[in-house]
Automatic annotation (TrEMBL):
<feature type="transmembrane region" description="Helical">
    <location>
        <begin position="175"/>
        <end position="202"/>
    </location>
</feature>
<keyword id="KW-1133">Transmembrane helix</keyword>
<protein>
    <recommendedName>
        <fullName>Glycosyltransferase RgtA/B/C/D-like domain-containing protein</fullName>
    </recommendedName>
</protein>
<feature type="transmembrane region" description="Helical">
    <location>
        <begin position="446"/>
        <end position="466"/>
    </location>
</feature>
<feature type="transmembrane region" description="Helical">
    <location>
        <begin position="142"/>
        <end position="163"/>
    </location>
</feature>
<feature type="transmembrane region" description="Helical">
    <location>
        <begin position="415"/>
        <end position="434"/>
    </location>
</feature>
<feature type="transmembrane region" description="Helical">
    <location>
        <begin position="208"/>
        <end position="225"/>
    </location>
</feature>
<feature type="transmembrane region" description="Helical">
    <location>
        <begin position="118"/>
        <end position="136"/>
    </location>
</feature>
<keyword id="KW-0812">Transmembrane</keyword>
<feature type="transmembrane region" description="Helical">
    <location>
        <begin position="86"/>
        <end position="106"/>
    </location>
</feature>
<keyword id="KW-0472">Membrane</keyword>
Length: 506
């Protein structure tokens, strides 16, 4: 099915030009308001290797990286090599350009799927001017990188579904491969299912889809295979046991009892005891045989002195943690299910609340847009009415955090109405694909709803089972995809309604 752009002549460029102009103006105002990319945070991030390794031994560091997929560290390393004294500006420039590309990709996706250009423009504009989107562009973590790549993936998939060319298939699967190399949530299994869906729903191009998919799935397996050879773990990240273990607390009486009996050795230390105690614990309990490279041997980074989460000591601890998690799943699974419910609630909190989890550079950035974000929350996040302390958390940096005495109702009051409605619309759209008659006039929209819906569901399930704490950040990553699916669904309802009305009139 070949579909050309519905716009011709000058109208083809009007809305993209407007989006570009508004985007540049808004980001210029953000810079004028004092927002900056905090490169110093990179030194402390668990996900980032020692700056000295990234700057002077990038390829060796990436070879020995096992705690994370490599692309995020590779980009930081390239920025360090390109402009070591201006790394923040280099990375910020890249993220801002990616933000612009994401906005244009959302608009182009909707227009190619035959929504009116004004509607596509409005949706892209709302996503682009969301204060959270601006904050994430200035944030040092890889959230903006994932968000932008997912928007580009949606556009590339749309082009392939409509045009069936190998070029667009390679573009889409290349972006999918890149996502598996950025964040561990996007496993090769996710990419393989995406390929299978393309193969099934585009029967005319099955041979092309199958051959190309095998190449990209094979490439996505190279990183876990490298980890298998070097570290005996077939995984894109060796941190999974740590992430799952966070659902149980060392202070829990049942956990503490088993830890005292020696059944849970990795729960003999609590993060509340501080970084120095953790380093000593790793040194005395989990010290591994040295391999002669600091990215594996050192417990701390030479630049900044933060813990080196890529050390072999951490790997040994995570291996033991996997056994502890297995024991707890058999004997005490309740905290996992309880935390999963709590994670879903966190998933639907305002995406800006990620910046307030700890009073660091991110919270300082948030305070510069606090009034705008507060106003947006009153519009989008008042499902049960805002709790009285909802925005007491954009307090001055030198003011202590208030104690949390949230009632059950106040916890529900923190939910984001806009996020819940958008997610429910996307899930309803995904369920509706079973009714072929509803989508028969727009088969490409149906296929795109399935493809994008698969990614939204994957992220929702995986992150809420594994993560607890920053879940609202993961919802932001798929927010544009959910908006596209919801828009397609509502447009299809509108066209079906008018089609029935016209048929009755005739």
């Amino acid at each position: 099915m070949t579909v050309r752009s519905p716009l011709t002549g000058k109208s083809r460029y009007l809305y993209p030009a407007l989006l570009t102009a508004i985007f540049l103006l808004s980001r210029g105002l953000a810079l004028a308001a004092g927002l900056r990319y905090s490169a110093i945070e990179l030194v402390w991030f668990w996900q980032v290797l020692d700056f000295d390794v990234l700057h002077h031994h990038l390829l060796r560091g990436l070879l020995h990286l096992h705690g994370q997929p490599p692309l995020y560290n590779a980009l930081i390393g390239l920025a360090l090599k390109t402009a070591p004294d201006a790394i923040g500006w280099v990375l910020l420039g890249g993220q801002i350009l990616l933000g612009l590309a994401a906005a244009l990709a959302v608009y182009s996706t909707l227009v190619r799927l035959r929504l009116k250009p004004l509607i596509g423009f409005a949706i892209a504009l709302i996503l682009m001017l969301n204060p959270s989107a601006i904050l994430y562009e200035f944030d040092a973590l890889y959230t903006q990188l994932v968000y932008g790549m997912l928007c580009l993936l949606a556009f590339a998939l749309t082009c392939y579904v409509q045009l069936r060319t190998r070029r667009w298939l390679c573009a889409a699967l290349g972006l999918g491969l890149a996502l598996t190399l950025v964040r561990a949530t996007y496993q090769w299994i996710w990419l393989a299912v995406l390929c299978a869906l393309l193969w099934w729903f585009i029967p005319e191009a099955r041979r092309r889809t199958a051959l190309t998919s095998l190449v990209f799935i094979g490439l996505s397996l190279l990183w876990p295979l490298k980890n298998l050879v070097l570290f005996h773990h077939f995984a894109t990240s060796t941190w999974l046991p740590y992430s799952v273990a966070k659902h149980w607390k060392a202070e829990d009486p049942a956990v503490a009892k088993w830890a005292a009996e020696g059944k849970l050795p990795t729960f003999t230390y609590s993060e509340a005891e501080g970084a120095e105690k953790e380093t000593e614990w790793l040194k005395t309990r989990w010290r591994a045989q040295e391999r002669g490279v600091p990215e594996l041997d050192s417990l701390t980074k030479s630049v900044g002195g933060a813990a080196n989460w890529n050390s072999l000591a951490l790997l040994r601890m995570h291996e033991a943690q996997a056994k502890d998690v297995s024991f707890l799943l058999r004997h005490y699974p309740q905290p996992l299910s309880t935390d999963a419910i709590a994670s879903i609630r966190l998933y639907f909190e305002p995406t800006s609340r990620y910046f307030l989890i700890s009073q660091n550079e991110a919270a300082g950035q948030y305070r510069r847009l606090a009034k705008v974000t507060h106003t947006l929350d009153r519009v989008c996040c008042n499902l049960f009415g805002l709790p009285p302390d909802f925005r007491s958390d954009y307090r001055p940096a030198d003011q202590a955090a208030p104690k949390d005495h949230s009632t059950t109702m106040q916890l529900f009051q923190r939910l984001c109405l806009g996020g819940i409605v958008l997610f429910l619309l996307a899930m309803t759209a995904l369920a509706s694909v079973a009714k072929w008659s509803f989508w028969k006039t727009s088969p490409d929209r149906r296929v795109m709803t399935i493809l994008l819906g698969w990614t939204i569901v994957w992220v929702f399930v995986v992150t809420n089972l594994v993560e607890t704490g920053e879940n609202m950040r993961f919802r932001f990553e798929t927010q544009a995809m959910a908006a596209v699916v919801a828009a397609l669904f509502l447009q299809q309802i509108w066209e079906a309604f008018h089609g029935h009305a016209k048929a009755r009139a005739n």
